[in-house]
Amino acid sequence: MLALGLLLAAIEITLAFTKLHALLFVTIVLAIGLILRQITRYAAARRPKPSLLRQAIVEQLPPDAFDRPKLLLATAGSAHMALSALALAKAENAALVVCFVRDVALSYKVEAETQLTLDTDLAALALFREFLAHGHDLGVPIIPAYDTGHNAPELIAELAAMNGVQKVLIGSSRRGVLHHLIKGRFQEQLENLLPPEIPVQVIYPPEPVVAPAPAMSH
Question: Which of 27, 31, 165, 216 has its CA 20 to 30 A from that of 14?
């Protein structure tokens, strides 16, 4: 084996000196490969790691999450409708797309300097964490959808189309005539933007459970 090894080494050295163009070609190929490998490692090291929220989102999604029917809940940064929306999604064996649109009414310059994202908007982080907790308890996959802009109905309609939802849910807390008027106007705008096959359904928070009064002793 030692003699065979020495023979092969001698052959390689002879080829290296007699076939300089082949040696140059192999050297260039190896150098390019090593350089690309180092660049890939450097880029991977600098790439930001996913946040804890994004990791939690991925981990709670079952393999069939995107194959299920999907309902979209248009929130206003509140989780008051979480249990109602999740109960409806569970009954339909659907995943719940939780949509939070941050209304931004600033100049382009200011907006660019203070751009909010899913990872920097504290209200959105708190909202999605709460929905993830409720979704885990009820066995409903949660798909967060976050965007910023000046027209909430348009953005919600776009997110509904992008996620291929079967229904859009909007909440109402039944707070007087003015509230219903505003909610009805919002629903009308949303329905005009959505295709006919995607209905808008109004849902309400669960009724509070009132404990029975203690019996009076005589």
Answer: 31
